[in-house]
Amino acid sequence: MGSMSYTELVEAARGQMGICKACPVCDGKACGNHIPGPGAKGTGTVAIRNYEAWQSVLLRMDTIHKPYVPDTSVTLFGHVLSLPVMVGPLGDVNRHYGPKFDMETYNDVMLRGAAGAGTLGWTGDGLSASLHEGACRAISSLDGCGICTIKPWSKDVVRDKLRLALAAHPVAVAMDIDGAGLPFLKGQQPPAGPKDVSQLREIAKACHAADTPFVLKGIMTERGAEKALKAGADGIVVSNHGGRVQDGVEATATVLPEISRAVGDDLVVLVDGGIRTGADVFRALALGASAVLMCRPFVVAMYGGGEQGVRDFLGQLRGELADAMEMCGAETVSDVTDDLVSW
Description:
Blueprint: H1 6-13, H2 46-55, E1 58-59, E2 74-76, E3 79-81, E4 85-87, H3 93-97, H4 103-116, E5 122-123, H5 129-141, E6 147-150, H6 155-167, E7 172-176, H7 197-209, E8 214-219, H8 222-230, E9 235-238, H9 252-263, E10 268-271, H10 278-286, E11 291-294, H11 296-328, E12 341-342
Parallel strand pairs: 4-11, 5-6, 6-7, 7-8, 8-9, 9-10, 10-11
Antiparallel strand pairs: 1-12, 2-3
């Protein structure tokens, strides 16, 4: 059986994803503010803004160059990826996308699909302790080929979850520092909330003692990025959580250039939010990201094609990125610089 295009994966997934309508283009418009479900908070417009901001970044073609096969590989945290795209974390697939996969199966299949395509999946975290435990087991079974995310719980809960995560020897441990804004975590047990620089420094130290990089996800300002650096983070994800934690915020594409200029020499800068095609990946690289995370489209790909669906979509993204690189005169990922786009 040949590989399936994203369009075919969408068709296969439609009707079995709960509130998600498996739209041909995941632009945030159909799901609006549906939470549970894949929607955004409040007016539901931040996810739409994320998507549209990338579309306003225009590629500048230059096809007068020697013939080459574009090299889409990138090295992150000492790990070589076949393309600068990783599968973003998801905390509760049943709650938001329907019963086809339980969380442990979802993580197993997603991580294997990503690893099989030469890249990494990120696992999520949630109210049930079993979500994180299963994620750590799945990463451990792949010899650590994944990145484990922990929410900003209370100190004791973070300590216990961190111990489990580090025992799985992941490529990195992340904390989605903005996770306390998720509507379904408000007033719940265990409690989640903000962390200051000194609290984050303790977490970073524990990671570094285990030779594991620490990444802070949910950075949206230059000031926040500089605090992440002071806290000892090795990387950040420029992210507004797909609009799910706060309404009325800027698009990630809008803030990425200033954040990258501020800390890009000292931190690995990643980005997510509304990235849907290889051309969008090219845009993110040009604006200063080392790689991107994508989540919602991979859920669709998995509901439509399982592990092979994840691989097929990653293959499509890699091909689209390579096409953009060839058409714009970039032989390697590091050649994709801001002079190759206009915005």
